[in-house]
């Protein structure tokens, strides 16, 4: 490729600055963003190498079962929503991508076919770690455990702050922990 290495944080910052709803990264093509419902090339970007795409996957797929699937199959799909604070302040500056991942498992397909409610689908995501699914708050918890996001920032961004606080306590994250902040 010869150019600068793909930087997911910079690409996500540009995605938000432009007002795009999502970022698509695929080997051999320049990253694309969705603007007003259309996919367009991320300005100033160049094709992503296999190594860069693998690095992005490792950065955003924090679930061990989903990482195992990636290793087993050589690929893994994930969707990321970057609106409403889905990029969270990182403990050492910059932003951290916090991904909610929904996998098209047989249970999810059945729920969608049955036109289940969003809370039912969210419960399937919460219980679907075997398939590599994770809720926004489960992703936040992984960031806090690994020191990428401070406990206080995570609490501020949690979808369900009370439940998230309980999860932090269960994970033995001290109440005053700042993880480098």
Describe this structure in words.
The chain has helices at residues 8-18, 50-60, 64-73, 106-113, 118-127, 136-145, 151-157, 161-170; strands at residues 22-24, 32-35, 38-41, 87-89, 95-97. With 181 residues, it is mainly alpha-helical. It has two domains: 1-59, Beta-Lactamase, CATH 3.30.450; 61-174, no CATH class. The protein has a three-stranded antiparallel beta sheet, covered by helices on one side. Strand 2 (32-35) and strand 3 (38-41) form a beta hairpin. The model is unreliable at 80-85 (pLDDT under 50).
Class by SSE composition: mainly alpha
Order of helices and strands: HEEEHHEEHHHHH
- The percentage helix is 40-55%
| Main sheet properties | 3 strands, antiparallel
Physical arrangement of strands within the biggest beta sheet: 1-2-3
Q: What are the low-pLDDT stretches, counting only 5+ consecutive residues below 50?
A: 80-85
The count of DSSP E runs of length 2 or more, i.e. the number of strands, is 5
Helix run count:
8
Please compute the radius of gyration using only Cα atoms: 17 Å
Percent of residues in β-strands? 5-15%
- What count of domains describes the coordinates? 2
Large-scale geometry: globular
Mean pLDDT: 79
Summarize the structure.
Helices cover 43% and strands 9% of the residues.
Q: Would you spell out the secondary-structure blueprint of this structure?
A:
Elements: H1 8-18, E1 22-24, E2 32-35, E3 38-41, H2 50-60, H3 64-73, E4 87-89, E5 95-97, H4 106-113, H5 118-127, H6 136-145, H7 151-157, H8 161-170
Antiparallel strand pairs: 1-2, 2-3, 4-5
């Amino acid at each position: 490729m010869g150019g600068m290495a793909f930087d997911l944080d910079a690409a996500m910052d540009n995605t938000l600055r432009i007002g795009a709803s999502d970022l698509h990264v695929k080997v051999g093509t320049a990253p694309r963003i969705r603007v007003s419902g259309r996919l367009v090339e991320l300005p100033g970007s160049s094709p992503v190498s296999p190594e860069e795409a693998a690095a992005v996957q490792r950065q955003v797929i924090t679930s061990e079962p989903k990482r195992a699937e990636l290793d087993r199959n050589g690929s893994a799909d994930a969707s990321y929503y970057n609106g409403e604070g889905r990029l969270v302040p990182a403990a050492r500056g910059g932003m951290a991508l916090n991904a909610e991942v929904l996998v098209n498992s047989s249970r999810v397909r059945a729920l969608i076919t049955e036109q289940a409610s969003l809370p039912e689908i969210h419960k399937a995501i919460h219980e679907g770690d075997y398939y590599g699914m994770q809720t926004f708050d489960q992703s936040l918890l992984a960031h806090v455990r690994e020191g990428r996001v401070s406990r206080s920032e995570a609490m501020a961004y949690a979808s369900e702050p009370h439940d998230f606080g309980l999860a932090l306590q269960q994970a033995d994250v001290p109440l005053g922990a700042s993880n480098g902040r």
